[in-house]
Amino acid sequence: MNKIKVKDVHHPGVAEEFDRLTVNDIQKLLTKRDQFVDTGCPACHSLNVKSAFNYQGMDYRRCCECELLYVSPAPTEALHLEYVLNSTAMKFWREIANPGMRESRRPMYQERVEYAKKIIQRFKPNSKNCLEVGAGNGEFAQELTNEQIFNEIVVLEPQELTLNMDSIEVITGGFEELESHERTFDVVFAWELIEHILEPDQFLRLVRKVMNSDGIFIISTPNENSVETRTLGTDSSNIIFDHVRLYNPVAITELLSRNGFRVLDISTPGLLDVERLKQHLDKKTDLFSDNPALHFLLMQDDKITAAFQNYLKENLHSSHMRVVATIDGEWKGSKTPVL
After folding, report:
1. How far is CA 165 from CA 117, 146, 185, 338, in A?
2. pLDDT at 135 over 60
């Protein structure tokens, strides 16, 4: 498998156009700001929260207990769904972006399949069927079919998705669609999804509903408590409006535990933190002048910077996080408390 680079995931000019369109989408959303709701922490439900910053017109808070970073006041679920369905930025990402992105990003989805195979081999759940919630353009599911791990692959995606593959069943709709489904699954995947969900307890309740009791839940999400995200701040690609809740290892563990899950494994296997930091440093040579140790590390040769990236991975400080969980206990979730 080829090593993936930042340019393979974020093609030149694409992120900039996506950001421009996002600002326009947010301005439309902000005309309904009087309907936004200011809440406590969506992860641990603490009311001990503080203002963090304002970005693109949206206010962010940080939990003083689990350090979750989240948008608040935030739009209601209905407003957020309306935003997702009508966003010009998301339409650009899905339909207009450089067609070469699909091929250049393919190693990323292949790596996810290899990771899933290792997790299934390690924890040995049944693997007759699986569900992917938030399938995007269906790239992961398509790569998964090549491995013949599952007899049945079902994907749930809010926007229309046509895969033309008999081995994949597509359900169109939000995760609320799971409420009416009676089938259960051995493995549930949620790649880069939970950071987009305003009320994660309700999402996790439905995941529990469709999971077999001995099944596993595989999640990936940005890690806000990473050197890349904390250092770059709003210049980090992790901080965009639709990432309405940005988790870290403590916050995601708190959230899953309250919702009746037990974390089996947590890792931050990201490979691109150092490369992204170096890209920013190349554009502005005095960028990390207030952090001479980081500046010194980034100026070293490839061997040392690779060792630094490995250190971030091993100590849960890479900006990409993966969690494996299983059902263990009762669901004790509820709506996020209002401030």
Report:
1. 21, 12, 20, 44
2. yes
